[in-house]
Amino acid sequence: MASSAHYNTVKTVTTGDTGQLSTQVTATSAGSWHWHFPGTTTTARVVSAGDAVTLK
Predict the structure, then answer these.
(1) Phi/psi zone of residue 19: left (φ > 0), alpha (ψ -120 to 50 degrees), beta?
(2) Collapsing DSSP states into helix, strand and coil, what is residue 35?
(3) Which residues pair with 51 in a beta bridge?
(4) What is the chain's pLDDT, residue by residue, as a tens digit (56 residues)?
(5) CA angle 42-10-38, nearest 5°?
């Protein structure tokens, strides 16, 4: 499905041996931030719901 949303990659992370994932990113602009998994031949693509970020 096509989308008009535009995403910028701010960090690329990998999972541990058992699939766990943890990271931190400093927000540099306000907006909606998402996790994105591009998918593989055996696992579907996933984009998380957005988290709204407002900078002070």
Answers:
(1) left
(2) coil
(3) 33
(4) 455 567 778 888 888 888 888 889 888 888 888 888 888 888 888 888 888 899 88
(5) 15
